Amino acid sequence: AAAWLPKRPVVTDVGSKFALGTARQWLEECQVEHATCPRSVKPKLPTRVVDISMEGETGRVKSHINQASEYGEYAALSYCWGGPQLVLTLKKNLVSMTNGLPVDKLPQTILDAIRVTRNLNIKYLWIDALCIIQDSDEDKDKEIGLMNQIYKNATVTIAAVSAKSVSEGFLQPRTAPEYVTLPFLCSDNTFGNALVMKQFNYDSMHPLNKRAWTLQESLLSPRKLLFGENELVWYCQTERNRYAIGCLDNYGILPPEVFQRDREVQMEAPEAHSVWVSVVNDYTKRSLTLREDRLRALYGVTKELEPVFQDRVGHEPYQTKRLQTV
């Protein structure tokens, strides 16, 4: 029956060589073959990235500061903090972070992200806790203002969708979902077996989709590698590959031109308003620790859509509706 059933049994060990090798293959195929995905052109690096290139030899990673408009590939991490963080970049440890941080001091989710990034043959990793000076309002305001570029320009975003906190990690083996075996009549009139399992609700099951800050990370990422409760999923602007079932309702809601660096977003007024309403509807269902972050946590998306509203949604009714949704 395998010739007629495209799905395969769930791969429960998402950290295996096979799973991570498949993820690397997905990325390479996307960069080479997908015309609708961002071209394989190295973007400008964010202000800070974590250099993982020496981790295997020295057991340390270090903060790399982009001081000369450097360009290069980097991965971005989307994850839940899950409370106070033990490892942060602060004013007092800026120098020590650039000298190197022992990996045995890092929480499990960050360790797992480093492992995935290394397996994807990417040198740099962007992590908000380590790449933004967390006790500097000036630096936070600056980097939040660049959030749309940070995620949009990332080669791939690694999403720890099933982890409730940074200490939990996301590469541990999963428990296979329950399934039943049913007879399957193939097109050549032979009988085989089909494994049937209950479809799960992606949005309600994963902690990452309950946090307000992570919505724009999802929407702005042109490529995403998601480590879920029962599956490893690849999303890009061209296709979706997965080792299970489920869906992401909000992925792909932004027009594809957002991710093409040399193209303008083309949307008519009603379509632009519909996109904005969908974003706000999703956003307002999510939780936020600090009330004052309500607008900041969505700033990257509004910054991407602002030219559309300014240039193509000049009609007063749509501007009014947009303000009402906020």
TrEMBL record:
<dbReference type="InterPro" id="IPR010730">
    <property type="entry name" value="HET"/>
</dbReference>
<protein>
    <submittedName>
        <fullName>HET-domain-containing protein</fullName>
    </submittedName>
</protein>
<feature type="domain" description="Heterokaryon incompatibility">
    <location>
        <begin position="74"/>
        <end position="217"/>
    </location>
</feature>
<dbReference type="Pfam" id="PF06985">
    <property type="entry name" value="HET"/>
</dbReference>
